[in-house]
Write a structure and sequence with these properties.
Layout: E1 5-12, H1 16-33, E2 38-42, H2 47-53, H3 59-67, E3 70-75, H4 90-100, E4 105-111, H5 124-127, E5 131-137, E6 145-152, E7 158-163, H6 168-183, E8 188-193, H7 199-215, E9 220-225, H8 226-235, E10 242-245, H9 247-260, E11 268-275, E12 281-287, H10 304-316, H11 321-336, H12 354-369
Helix pairs in contact: 1-10, 1-12, 6-7, 8-9, 10-11, 11-12
Bound molecules: nicotinamide-adenine-dinucleotide (NAD).
Length: 370
């Protein structure tokens, strides 16, 4: 039997801990029933770590995250931390974790489950069967470029500056992940920028084209301007397979694509780092939603986004596509049988609790793996 995987669990704040309880049950199920086993570590992060240790990310948690085979995060934040100093706020812990782990590739799938088609604001025929993956560069670009800030000009008025900057290596490494992911999907990549008006856009296009020619000629590549991509995402989203784009455009386009699927409680994500010499990548998996303080502690939260994040971990960190499929199929079947938490409940349906949804997924796993 293969060695156990080390998994660091960071439940965080608000609904984070309660959805994570359900994921722990699924991890235990895999431990018992499948070939993969896990050694689990757990640490507070965000507000929970601030309350316990006066910092949103302890050195111990960071060091465990750097060494773990994968990290699974719930969510961080809450109104009680709004007045904490900036570097002590829950998000500061998350940002430091992403930065130290150098998680440059953010994967945001937009998958429409048949049973939830009506939750999308778009027409059924536009989103039916939708399965796209937005790959956003996460550690460079205009959110990090220097110089930045507000300055006072000679005439006494002020101006603000942000700098969009990308090195060749930063573009190459995220584009390579995009091509590799596409090879395991429908083998198509759209590279998205604004080459019509931005120097970084022209450069991005050039670097992606060269990389494609030298290493990924078997993958179909198309270039698209970001504004057109936004339009195409709501016009005809199924034309896409993998979209690779920079930090700013990825931020916007991934939220747009996410909403095609209708519900925040259903959306998983993954953030990957560079491969080391053994081929291992640092990686963190987390739902797209936040800590939902309005429903925290009420056993009402939808745990599926975090359960699907665990499925992404099986697929992308451990190469266990069949096991990931099993989790996704169990979720799909539970939804098809009418299992709904309150955020996705339809007219005439009864909502189940967070625990009830966990029970249903486990029962379905037992059934389909029997
Ligand atoms: P949110 O995602 O927490 O909640 C938005 C709305 O969606 C709320 O009405 C909430 O009840 C609902 N919702 C979210 N997840 C749900 C789920 N799994 N099941 C059912 N309903 C769900 O966003 P927000 O209200 O803007 O932020 C709340 C806190 O979360 C803030 O402190 C914010 O900073 C933080 N936040 C954290 C992350 C993260 O940890 N990655 C991401 C976004 C927001």
């Amino acid at each position: 039997m293969a060695a156990n995987k080390t998994l660091l669990i960071l439940p965080g704040d608000g609904i984070g801990p309660e959805v994570m309880v359900q994921v722990r049950r699924i991890v235990d199920w895999f431990d018992r029933r499948r070939a993969v086993g896990f050694d689990i570590l757990e640490q507070p992060v965000g507000g929970a770590a601030y309350d316990a240790h006066g910092t949103p990310l302890t050195d111990e948690a960071l060091s465990e995250a750097m060494d773990a085979d994968a990290v699974l995060l719930g969510a961080v934040g809450g109104p009680q931390y709004d007045n904490a100093p900036r570097d002590k706020r829950p998000e500061a812990g998350l940002l430091r974790l992403r930065k130290e782990m150098d998680l440059f590739a953010n994967l945001r799938p937009a998958l429409v489950f048949d049973a939830l088609i009506d939750a999308s604001t778009l027409k059924r025929e536009v989103v039916e069967g939708l399965d796209i993956l937005i790959l956003r560069e996460l550690t460079a670009g205009v959110y990090f470029g220097e110089p930045r800030g507000v300055e006072t000009l000679a005439d006494g008025t002020r101006r603000a500056i942000d700098t969009q900057s990308y090195t060749e290596a930063e573009i190459q490494r995220v584009a390579a992940v995009g091509f590799e992911l596409a090879r395991k999907r429908s083998n198509r990549v759209h590279s998205v920028e604004k080459a019509n008006v931005m120097e970084t856009g022209v450069f991005w296009r050039e670097v992606v084209t060269d990389l494609h020619e030298s290493r990924f000629g078997d993958v179909e590549l198309q270039h698209m301007y970001a504004d057109n991509c936004a339009m195409q995402l709501v016009r005809q989203p199924r034309q896409f397979d993998v979209i690779v784009t920079d930090n700013l455009f990825g931020d916007i386009l991934s939220d747009c694509a996410a909403m095609l699927t209708g519900s925040l409680g259903m959306l998983p994500s993954a953030s990957l780092g560079a491969e080391d010499e053994t081929g291992r990548r640092r990686a963190m998996y987390e739902p797209v939603h936040g800590s939902a303080p309005d429903i925290a502690g009420k056993d009402m939260a939808n745990p599926l986004a975090t359960i699907l994040s665990f499925a992404m971990m099986l697929r992308y960190s451990f190469g266990l596509g069949d096991d990931a499929d099993l989790v996704e199929r169990a979720v799909q079947n539970v939804l098809a049988a009418g299992g709904r938490t309150q955020d996705i409940v339809g007219p005439g349906m009864e909502a189940v609790s967070t625990t009830g949804m966990g029970d249903a997924v486990l029962a379905e796993l037992d059934r389909i793996a029997a």
